[in-house]
Amino acid sequence: MDSLVIHFLGTGGGRHTMSTQRRRTAGIRLVNGRNNIHIDPGPGALVHSIYAGLTPLKLDGIVVTHCHPDHYTDAECLIEAMTQGTTRKKGVLAAAKSVIDGNEETDRSISRYHQKLVSTVTRLIPKSITKIGSVSFQAVEALHGDPDSIGLIIDDGEHGKIGYTSDTELIPSLIEAYSGLRLLIACTMWPKGERLEGHLNTDDALQLIKEVKPKCVVTTHYGFRLLNADPLKEAKWLGEESGIPVFSATDGMRVTLNDEILIQGSKKSDEPIM
Q: Please, what is the Cα angle at 94 between 146 and 105, to 5 degrees?
């Protein structure tokens, strides 16, 4: 059985983190022995993919959860790479309806031209399921500034289910949707005690973790205030309060799923955590 590796190419979120690149906004690359998929390719996704040795030429699909720049900006660049410089009609674009069509809040963020380059375009609406190779993506309801925003349940059939909240407030439907996960990736924008409409803070993340009881949690997508509060301290508090292993993602971190879950920092000298 091949490993499933999740590369945290960027762990920043929100306007100020994106504008300063205090943390990268390059999104997440998911790789197993058969498939290579990029999730939420914000600014820097193309460059940091290449720096990490994850050539975008090998992509099978691109997934975008909503129509905000820190989640979609490099999508068209990755489409051109995935289609071998537009010479091959190839790959899947799976995205929230706003990203494909636009809505009352925003215009589409991926042009008709780029949509025509890929083999398949799929609109992700809550409870819909699409497959990219061996990996299925089920869209989960979210509450965010883009009314078409979605989260994801990711399942390759071998390594257990992975939840990715993307940007959302804590709403009741998340409890059912994210139950039974092996790994929860929680986009936690603000620290405990501070609220931001349309996003999870650390208090919300704790409530979600306690309710859904995943085997392991990784927090990511940090705004300025959470960075100032220190993501490591916030993650430690979440672990102590929930009794579940919680890790704070760093730029370049890798999570490998096999029989165990292995957390590896971006530096070769970083000791892996099982």
A: 20
Residue with tokens 């992509």: 59
User: In the chain, where are the structural domains located?
Assistant: 4-263
Cα Rg for the chain, rounded, in angstroms? Answer: 17
| pLDDT score, position 1 | 66
Q: Kindly report the CATH class assigned to 4-263.
A: alpha beta
Mean pLDDT calculated for residue range 159-168: 97
Rounded-to-integer distance, Cα 140 and Cα 92, Å: 19
Measure the CA–CA gap between 202 and 207, rounded to whole angstroms.
9
Cβ-based neighbours of 90, under 8 Å, separated by 6 or more: 82, 83, 84, 118, 119
CA distance 7 to 76: 20
Q: Give the list of residues 6+ apart from residue 5 with CB closer than 8 angstroms, or none.
A: 30, 31, 32, 254, 255, 256, 257
